[in-house]
Amino acid sequence: MDEFEFIKQIKPNYYRHDTIIKGIGDDAAVFRQPYQDVVTAVDTFVEGIHFSKKTMDPFHIGYRVLAANISDMAAMGATPVSYLISLVVPKEWTDEELIAIYKGMESISKAYKIDLIGGDTVSGDQLVLSVTINGKVEKDKVRLRHHVRSGDVLFVTGTLGDSACGLDLLLSDDPRVESHRYLIDRHRLPTPRVDFAERLKVLNRVALNDISDGISSEANELAESSGVSIYLDYDQLPISDELRSIQSNKQEEFILAGGEDFELLGAVSEKDWPIVQEAAEKSNLTVTQVGYATDGDSTVYIHQDEKVRLLKRGGYVHRN
After folding, report:
1. Is 221 known as a binding-site position?
2. What gap in Å lies between CA 185 and CA 85, rounded to an integer?
3. 3-state secondary structure labels for all residues of 24-50
4. Full set of structural domains in the chain with CATH
5. I need a labelling partner for 203 at 20 to 30 A (CA). Which of 46, 169, 217, 244 fits?
6. Where is ATP annotated to bind (predicted)?
7. Pairing relationship of beta strands 37-46 and 79-89 according to DSSP bridges
8. Are residues 118 and 84 in contact, defined by beta-carbon separation less than 8 angstroms?
9. 213 in a known ligand binding site
10. Residue 161, annotated as binding a ligand
């Protein structure tokens, strides 16, 4: 059973408290207060699966772990406020390395004005970091995956595939790897799109999903949650000049299934598309129209090489 099937199995049919607006099934949970909604998400990262010393130093590990959680807040349209961190620490990791992990988290938390409010540390066989992040959003302004409608424009912020390519370069032992600093930094030091997402609060409806597992996976999540079909145009998917310059037979895989760019995939009505473009411009960010949604059977298709084919989930799927 993969993680998606496992989530379906444990998802409750109802919630006992009417303050729970959204539970399992999106990038974060939503709790209602009288004046705003509270958004909470948790991610767990395991050494050897999500990160390694071969590709990142401890500072980068801390930075990137918290960046992933902040990106979940962006996908919900929420402003991140605070976080808690729990660590399982093996004896091989030194105090200096652990402090460097916290320094990485401190660096990005300072940039996004987020407070560390607690956590826990225990001993174990391998390094595990579990981060719980809290955010806030105006009532009825949370962005959910099931908000896609037939006729919507599909869009993507930034560029795709950079992080996956950066990781591939780091794993290659190529002595010229440092010459591809942009791609390396896109993997180690991603930029969650919080500012852009916050600027979309003027819209009554927009669906967002952060690209952590690859656009093929995130598009399928939107289609399944909203009960629509999504059509993507491969030639319209935004690619950086740095990625284009890399001669690799994995380029398509990087773009469609690489993930961990922590860009945003979104859907909005055609009439509201100019507002999305304006939000991107004010955030000093590119945004690209990459497809559209239609009535359909919760599937994703991609137009590529003058053919239309079914686009199944790619990227990393966790097994339990």
Report:
1. no
2. 24
3. ECECCEEEECCCCEEEEEEEEEEECCC
4. 3-137 (3.30.1330.10), 145-310 (3.90.650.10)
5. 217
6. 102, 119-120, 145, 212
7. unpaired
8. yes
9. yes
10. no
Strands of the chain (E only): list them.
Answer: 20-22, 29-32, 37-46, 79-89, 115-123, 128-137, 153-157, 207-210, 228-233, 264-268, 287-295, 300-304, 307-310
237-254 burial code (b ≥16 CB/10 A, e <16)? bbbbebbeebeeeebebb
Q: Do the annotations mark residue 35 as ligand-binding?
A: no
**Cβ(255)–Cβ(288) below 8 Å:** no
- pLDDT for residue 316: 43
Q: What is the CA radius of gyration of the chain?
A: 19
- Cβ burial of 306 (10 Å; 0-12, 13-18, 19+) is exposed
Task: Enter the DSSP assignment of 158.
Answer: S
CA dihedral over 233, 234, 239, 241, signed as positive or negative? negative
145 is in an annotated binding site: yes
Q: Is the pLDDT of residue 214 over 60?
A: yes
Residue 206 CA to residue 79 CA, distance in Å, equals 16
pLDDT digits (tens, 9 = 90+) for 20-67: 777 777 777 787 887 899 999 999 999 999 999 889 999 999 999 999
Per residue in 104-151, pLDDT tens?
Answer: 999 999 999 998 888 888 899 999 999 999 999 999 899 999 999 999
The answer to whether 72 is a known ligand-binding residue is yes
Q: Determine if residue 162 is labeled as part of a ligand binding site.
A: no
pLDDT value, residue 144:
95
Geometric angle at alpha carbon 190, from 288 and 302, rounded to 5°: 35
306 known member of a binding site? no
120 marked among binding-site residues: yes
User: How far separated are the first and last CA of the chain, in Å rounded?
Assistant: 7
Distance CA(215)–CA(160), nearest Å, equals 8
Report phi then psi at 307, rounded to 5.
Answer: -130, 155
Annotated ligand binding at 119? The verdict is: yes
173 annotated as a binding-site residue: no
DSSP sequence for 203-224: -S--EEEE-SS-HHHHHHHHHH
Match 């408290």 to its residue by tokens: 17
